[in-house]
């Protein structure tokens, strides 16, 4: 990481859209680093609870910047919430090292 990245991190972003009647698309953008604020899983968990027909979530990470354990911590919580709700997680949209 160079000095400009330290001074000007790209804010971590999270947005969700219903891609199909049973699929929630989770878009991750910006830098997801433990040293920077990252979105909480609460919004995603609420979306899963309120959308009764959701059976699967997918990820779009094409706008994801740098990441470290901040992203991994978020994903662990998402995976746990999905497991409890019996929602399939399509991991192929995640960066290498996140889907293991």
Radius of gyration computed on alpha carbons: 14 Å
Arithmetic mean pLDDT: 87
**Strand elements, count:** 4
Query: Between the first and last Cα atoms, what is the distance in angstroms?
Result: 25 Å
Walk across the major sheet and give the strand order: 1-2-3-4
Estimate the global geometry from the Cα principal axes. Answer: globular
Name the beta content range: 25-35%
Poorly predicted runs: 1-7
Kindly list the characteristics that best describe this protein.
100 residues; alpha/beta; Transcription Regulator spoIIAA; four-stranded mixed β-sheet; 4 strands; globular
Walk me through the structure.
This protein has 100 residues and is of the alpha/beta class. It has a single domain (3-93), classed as Transcription Regulator spoIIAA (2-Layer Sandwich). Helix content is 30%, strand content 32%. The chain is built from 3 helices and 4 strands; from the N terminus they run H-E-E-H-E-H-E. The protein has a 4-stranded mixed beta sheet, with helices on one face. The chain is globular. The model is unreliable at 1-7 (pLDDT under 50).
